[in-house]
Amino acid sequence: MAQVLEFRLPDLGEGLTEAEIVRWLVEVGDVVAVDQPVVEVETAKAMVDVPCPYAGVVTARFGEEGSELPVGAPLITVAVGASAPGGSTEASTGSAGGSGNVLVGYGTSEAPARRRRVRPAPAVPAAANGRSMAAEPVGEPHGGPGAQTAGRDASGAVATATVDESGVTAAGRPGAPEAVADGPVPVISPLVRRLARENGLDLKELTGSGPDGLILRADVEYALRAAAVQTRTAPVPAATPAAAPATTPGGTRVPLKGVRGAVADKLSRSRTEIPDATCWVDADATELMRARAAMNATGAPKISLLALLARICTAALARFPELNSTVDMAAREIVRLDAVHLGFAAQTERGLVVPVVKDAHARDAEALSAEFARLTEAARTGTLTPAELTGGTFTLNNYGVFGVDGSTPIINHPEAAMLGVGRIVPKPWVHEGELAVRQVVQLSLTFDHRVCDGGTAGGFLRYVADCVEQPAVLLRTL
Fold first, then answer.
1. Average pLDDT of the segment spanning 20-43
2. 286 and 353 in contact (C-beta within 8 Å)?
3. Which of 13, 348, 375, 394 gets the most CB atoms within 10 Å of its CB?
4. How confident is the model at residue 473 (pLDDT cuts 50, 70, 90)?
5. Residue from 153, 202, 359, 453 carrying the catalytic annotation
6. Quick one: angle between helices 305-319 and 454-469, nearest 10?
7. Max alpha carbon distance in the chain (Å)?
């Protein structure tokens, strides 16, 4: 007899709570092998193909393309040991124990336990769905007799119970995630309910943006932000009652989700928590450009300008380690980091991402060029992994590619500094006592004033400018 196992959306990276279904790679009735990708999802950090740890026949899919699912929500169910339509026994070769492979924060060594927060009907014993209700919080409604939900019996197969018709029904129906009824409110995540409860928000007043009106965390956060803005901008009551009726201007609302939402959250947090300051300097990059041309004329692999700037940054951070650090306010400590994991800003069709070159301080210009090229291509195709988008300690932002000269970068929280590089263009410059046309670039450094003072930041930026103007300065630290 086939055993039906449920595969839930795993934790795909640091701090991620949901993912958007981009494309299903399997249909109901398809035979899947162990570790075969079944769905392509987009998180706030990357596009990821999610492999299934079970081999068998797909019996259900949860969520439509374009919908968001929280971590832990059901993705698919697989009948392990069942024959595929047409009598094939190919599915039975898989193991019900899973592949043993581990996605980030999610093991697949055994079938994940169902954590359904729905009270079963009085006529159905608590053991019928394979778990105890002792852990259920008191005082939260979970539905009553009449609606349908699903549990699991002792064998791991999906069992069915009935609850109130006012409850939300989603389990066992392909194309919709399982929901839990807070009265008639479709909510799947305890975190969403807690967030609303702690902020005094009535979920019944919200319209969910998820499948079948499912209320997501983003919906709650948006409602809280809107309420905060309304409170701040509420007009003072007029002395006379002749106030004009409120009107809503036309426009288009663009949800802050996915990459754009993650960028918004991180930049807002940076400006809220970090007391930043910016200093800048113009530098003559003529000699740096000549040095790069000489390197690339040797027939060896080409050296990118970004790689040379990165090599200069790692040399500068070795002299000014205060800027390769982070601040632990809970312990009231500055944590100076040993390794330089260099992030670089990359604009893609999906938005701004910051891939990270790990151990940049241990790479030469040629190795840095190769890694920048690899990560840039992965960013363009949306194949960066969460590991390649996290862990940065310092960021290099080359906004000169957009044809602009200067900027005041916002620090990539929780880092302590970011170096911005403008375009390199011919400008009049005093060189060796005479006016000449030189290749000039503006460099700007935004730094966390908690980790150092202006003297340290100025020293770092001046050293970077000296290396740009006279690349031979780097030889002292090689």
1. 90
2. no
3. 394
4. confident
5. 453
6. 140
7. 95
Residue 371 near residue 357 (C-beta atoms within 8 A): yes
Tens of pLDDT, residue by residue over 258-310, are: 777 777 888 899 999 999 999 999 999 999 999 999 999 988 899 999 999 99
Q: Which residues contact 108 (CB under 8 A, 6 or more apart)?
A: 53, 98, 99, 100, 101, 102
Structure tokens given for 3: 């055993």
Q: How far is Cα 312 from Cα 393, in angstroms, rounded to an integer?
A: 15
Cβ–Cβ < 8 Å for 88, 31: yes
| 413 has catalytic annotation | no
CA separation for the pair 60, 171 (Å, rounded) = 10
What does each C-alpha distance from 90 to 2, 52, 319, 422 come to in angstroms? 13, 16, 61, 58
Nearest-CA neighbor of 353 among 390, 403, 306, 400? 390
Other C-beta atoms lying within 10 Å of the C-beta of residue 27:
9
Q: Is 431 assigned a catalytic role?
A: no
What is the spatial distance between Cα 217 and Cα 18, in angstroms, rounded to a whole number? 9
